[in-house]
Amino acid sequence: MFNTIRKHIKDGNVFTGVEYLSEHDIHKLFCVQLSKKKNELHLINTCKTETVEELSLQLKKNHPLFITINTSQVISKFVAAKTDNELAIVHKAFPNIDLDDFYYEISSIKNNSLISICRKEQVDTVLAAFIAKKMEIIGFSLAFHQIYQVEKFIDDDIIFSNKVLVKNEDTVFTDAKNADAVYNINGIEVQSDFILSFSAALTHFLNGPVLGSNFRERIITLKNEFYQKRFFHLFSKSFGMILLGVLLINFFFFNHYFQKVEELKQTIAINSSNKEKLLKLDEVVSKKEKLVNDIISSSSSRSSMYLDQTASLLPETLLLTGMNYQPIQKKIKKDKPILFETDVLEIEGHARDSGDFSEWIETIEKLKWVSELSVEGYGYENSSTSSFKVVISIENEQ
Fold first, then answer.
1. Do 116 and 96 lie in a common domain?
2. Could you tell me which residues come within 8 angstroms of residue 199 by beta carbon, excluding any fewer than 6 positions away?
3. 291 and 193: one domain?
4. pLDDT in tens, 234-260
């Protein structure tokens, strides 16, 4: 499980092989893409172009390529060799070769060794053409050597590609072709024109080593450069997604609490307004309460004096039935102010002697605090008793 995840992170799920074919200044590129799904390989794309630029337009930039260089600059030979010494095999096939100027690659086919060489500057030129189009290279090979990936699935002694390999003779390549040849590679149908690019893609998938060669270090460098770029791309993408996720979460929390804060602000504003109104009402009530208390306090002392003086002057033939200081003007109604007749004293009672009543009235009128006195009602109740109502306007002392 861990290895599968590790491989996916390193290489992805798409594996691309390209055969770069060139003869007489005519270039052809054959591309195969394989995809891994549920531990199975599927052929998802084949294409043929004449330039690297055309190919770059058909492939995604971040899919690495394994390139088979199969140009006229690549020279291959079969030699019979029983030694494992790579340099001995190379020099047997190409005496006096200067390996500072050439790349070589060796593989075994049947009982022979296939040796291919190409000038380093030619290989570098081909690779540079892909790199210039922002295409990633994970490895390369010369001529027909990656055919070993599918050779065991092909029983024929002659393998048709864009050139022909004869496995049991000394012939390496011929111009003969069989465009109709189709090979079944473990259930995948591959046309002969794409057999080498398919092998290259399979090498990428299997992470197979380039066989005997003097460019192993170059391939390791290419792989490391690609993996570094891929890790940086994945890390940047993952970091960007995490950062975006954090920002989104932060936004949602901010938006949520921002709304809460706004609601609280509105509540505070309403409460502040209500508090201000309550304070004003409380102030008004306090003032009115003080005024009432002052009036009550003042009125109580004065009303007591008025009542005492009035009662002390009352003759025995008069009986008081009621005294009302500052009477209410109208009947009390809900949500209406209560109106009083200020500085007014109403006295009601019964008189048995009209003469004593008249003298009492005259005496009351002479009091300092009486500004005006009127008898608003005087009538006989029976032969010996009369009822009366006297209204006294009190001198305003304020």
1. yes
2. 17, 68, 146, 147, 148, 149, 150
3. no
4. 667 666 677 778 888 888 878 888 888
Q: Pull the structure tokens for residue 150.
A: 């599918």
Last residue of a domain, one of 214, 238, 262: 214
**Cα dist. 128→39, 48, 67, 121, 124 in Å?**
34, 20, 12, 10, 6
Show the tokens assigned to 360. 């009492």
The pLDDT value given to residue 173: 55
Give the pTM: 0.60
Write the single-letter amino acid at 162. Answer: N
Last residue of a domain, one of 214, 244, 268: 214
- Distance (Å, rounded) from C-alpha 240 to C-alpha 220? 29
Kindly state whether residues 82 and 173 are assigned to the same domain.
yes
* Element at 394 (helix H, strand E): strand 386-394
**Regions of the chain where pLDDT drops below 70:** 1-11, 82, 110, 164-179, 209-210, 234-235, 237-240, 291-301, 397-398
Q: What is the rounded CA–CA span in Å between residue 298 and residue 325? A: 12
